[in-house]
Amino acid sequence: MLISGASIAGTTLAYWLRRHGLTPTVVERAPAIRDGGYKVDIRGAALDVADRMGVLPSIRARRTDVRGGSIVTATGRQVAAMDGDTFGGRHGGDAEILRGDLNRLLYDLTKDDVEYLFDDSIAALVQRGDGVQVTFESGAVRDFDVVVGADGLHSHTRALAFGPESSFVHDLGYYVSIFSVPNHLGLDRWELTYVAPGRTALTYSTAGDGGAKAMFLFASPPLAYGHRDRARQEALLAEAYAGEGWEVPRLLAGAAQAGDFYFDSLSQVRMDSWSRGRVALVGDAAYCASPASGQGTSLALVGAYVLAGELAAAGDLRAGLAAYEREMRPFAEANQKLGPANIKRMVLRTRGQVRTSLAMLSLINRLPGGKRLMAKAIEPIRRAANAITLKTYE
Fold first, then answer.
1. Does the structure show a pLDDT above 70 at 91?
2. How far apart are CA 93 and CA 90, in angstroms?
3. Which residues form the FAD-binding domain (predicted)?
């Protein structure tokens, strides 16, 4: 079996396939596993998957340990502060880790008994009755019984097997950018967020990282740019935040030196089927919920676990893929609902909404029952994170 993409979904799928006695190969466009990255949450059923893989203690040991966060005005005045779990929408045993740290843990679990092909990618697929002939960008041609696209929102595997991206990727009307910056504010495991009409900017530091991350979320009609045209992306980001106060200009200036600059639309992938013949999809390639959902990593972990388990349990490709969709689709749809709702709270559209929100946040910690109100606000995330009962496939 060939897996396209060595990110969270791909490495997790490789682990479980190998554990079920199958022989996966993983092809990855990048020259190596990507380290660093932004902070991600592992919640609900995904914690069970990590526990079954034996990596949950290592995840907790590498937690970001963000202590809390503050909302600031254009002049830098703090108007509200919350503890890290409340600020991050976490509950109970939820774990927060840098995406690259998690990916490294998963890769280390599999690197000794899974074939990884770095600095390469799929150029063409030809499905036959008993397999798929894959031509790689390197020129190599190999046959596999199944190909799984775990290559993200802009999945090339999906485009080859299912059709153009425009048929499946739905723009939510917002953009996100994140990259490393110097920790010029001297943050110690703390997050600062600045909110303006249609624009949110934040910066945070995590345990064990001497630098910081800057993140930008803004509302916008569709923008024209190439996914690998970094200069154009930086220009669009600067244009979107022109004239904003607080530390925004200094944070934006850090983009030019960042080795991990990321820019993309907040979008979701919606498909009627996640398989076509002997090609299947997992993670963001199949059911991206958008970063606004806070559940992309959990969907990747759970989806890979379920896909591998159902394939192994069925012993038949068609039956296994059908069972994978039956198990995963309600969970994926529950988590996708979080994205559009969350982003409206993260990026406020009008000055009136900003004023009202800041006033409420400034009072919340002083109001009787304030903590209960915050707990109620994050309850939809908890429900969605637990909206599946994991089978035991062994």
1. no
2. 8
3. 2-159, 268-335
